[in-house]
Design a protein that fits this description.
With about 210 residues, the protein is of the alpha/beta class. The chain has a single domain, classed as Glycerol-3-phosphate (1)-acyltransferase (3-Layer(aba) Sandwich), CATH 3.40.1130. About 35% of the residues lie in helices and about 15% in strands. β3, α3 and β4 form a beta-alpha-beta unit. α1 crosses α2 and α5 packs across α6. The longest helix is centred in the C-terminal third of the chain and has 26 residues. It starts with 5 loop residues before the first helix and ends with a helix.
């Protein structure tokens, strides 16, 4: 197994910091909630194309994101691989992606997941079971993250991206363990954990909106 490069993720974080603070105006709230060491899963709502880079540049630790394989095209393939990101085939059970993601956590790294799977409403209404599996299998705490903003109409240099210099709020929540304490990884246990995750993520999104005034 070749674990995604921790050094590469650190380089990706440096690039993300430069891009985010140059092109947009991120405000980070609650970053202290992310454990300073050990395995962590960041569960992020997904409403914009730049949510991944936004988190790479604002999280207090380097992040390895699970990213759809369609993004790994042309020169982006070696670049994303080089900065420690994990390619995943969303159309099947991608065993290589699962192995790589588990490797990140087993080595004490930070795994970033968009639990909705695709860019949607960004409100955690649809949660995939993979998040529960990674958390229960490794014991890594989940930190909910809400990315809010970027809905301004004018100033879009590229139509698919939020307006330049628009403000974003990135709100980190309290880490939690979605398991029931038994360590079971049965389908029923993971389904129950997924329900608990959805409840916590939805509650965090509501708190983040109140905290940020959005």
């Amino acid at each position: 197994m070749t674990v995604p490069s921790a050094r590469g993720a650190a380089v990706g974080r440096a690039i993300g910091i430069g891009l985010m603070n140059t092109l947009w105006r991120p405000r980070v709230l609650g970053a202290w909630q992310v454990p300073a060491t050990g395995p962590v899963i960041l569960a992020v709502n997904h409403a914009h194309n730049i949510d991944g880079p936004m988190l790479m540049g604002t999280a207090p630790r380097p992040v390895h994101f699970l990213i759809k394989k369609e993004a790994f095209v042309g020169p982006l393939n070696p670049f994303l691989t080089g900065i420690g990101q994990v390619k995943v085939d969303r159309a099947s059970t991608d065993r290589a992606a699962v192995t790589n993601a588990l490797g990140v956590l087993e080595q004490g790294g930070v795994l970033g997941i968009f639990p909705e799977g695709t860019r949607a409403g960004g409100d955690f209404t649809s949660i995939r079971a993979g998040l529960a599996y990674f958390a229960v299998r490794t014991g890594a705490p989940i930190v909910p993250v809400a990315v809010l903003g970027g809905s301004e109409r004018g100033g879009r240099l590229i139509p698919a991206l939020p307006p330049l210099r628009s403000r974003f709020d990135i709100v980190f929540g309290e880490p939690f363990d979605p398991g029931d304490g038994s360590g079971r990884r049965t389908r029923r246990a993971l389904d129950e954990a997924t329900v608990r995750i959805q409840e916590r993520l939805t509650a965090h999104l509501g708190n983040a909106r109140r905290l940020s005034g959005r």
